[in-house]
Amino acid sequence: MRRRREIPGPEAMARLELDLPAGRGRAHAPIIWLALASFLTWGSVNETKVWPTNETLAKITGCPLRAVELGIAMLRRAGKISTTRGWRRRCGFGRIITMHLVGSGPCPRVTLPSPADMRALWAKARTRRERPATVVALALAAYVQAAAEGRGKVGKSRTLGARLAQLRRLVGASHGSTFTARLDVLASLGILDRAGELWRDGVVVFGRWAVRALQRATSWIAATLPAMPLRRVGSRRATIRDCPAKWTGPPPEYGGGPWELVLDVG
User: Fold this and answer.
1) CA 40 to CA 107: how far, in whole Å?
2) Do 182 and 258 belong to one domain?
3) 251 & 161 share domain
4) Could you tell me the pLDDT band of residue 83, with boundaries at 50, 70 and 90?
5) What pTM does this model have?
6) Rounded (10°) angle between helices 132-149 and 177-188
7) Is residue 193 part of a domain?
8) Could you give the C-alpha distances from 112 to 105, 182, 191, in angstroms and in order?
9) Which end of the chain, N or C, is less packed with Cβ atoms under 10 Å?
10) Mean pLDDT confidence for 232-243
11) Is residue 4 domain-resident?
């Protein structure tokens, strides 16, 4: 009888601690690092080799391909990964990435948001003055930590048991006002919230970003369109293109689209 693997506890996330130098790729490196960790064989002690392509990393993180390349170069320069070429299980010959985790013990179980949630997160982050990649990296670290504490699930929301220091370690950030300012930005975007009066009292992580963005956009559309005249078309249906030219769809903080709205005007 095959023995079932035991899911590592959230304490295993400490093995993903980052310490990155300044330079190009610094902002995107934590995102790529956590994406690479999602390919680890969780629970394994010695198996830290993964082999996703740059295209795959770009798809699951929402980062441009060039940003993925710079992030990998930064991780390599920081000594967090090394790359070789060889035979990969069920994937043939190609690049193999060895992740150099901190300490010993089982590999953590890293659960990423869905690609749709990542697109919604990027769309929200681009509406603020903070650098989008740094905002996304912190949001992703909080989500990954929450998923580890929830055994792979975040749901609508989850209060972190980990301290803020753990989130700082996952993104390689230092203690200071800049880190707190990023938390405030994520709170204004509805990604995180305080569990008390201060951030050190606890962090609440909200999940299902794409669904919540769509719900907000739907409410906004429902409240906006009835007051706007639509041009009647032969099929007795109208689309966004039939709306007045001044209206181009919901603002970016509602998810970014692209929107395909069809309204019955009969």
Assistant:
1) 7
2) no
3) no
4) very high
5) 0.78
6) 80
7) yes
8) 21, 20, 15
9) N
10) 44
11) no
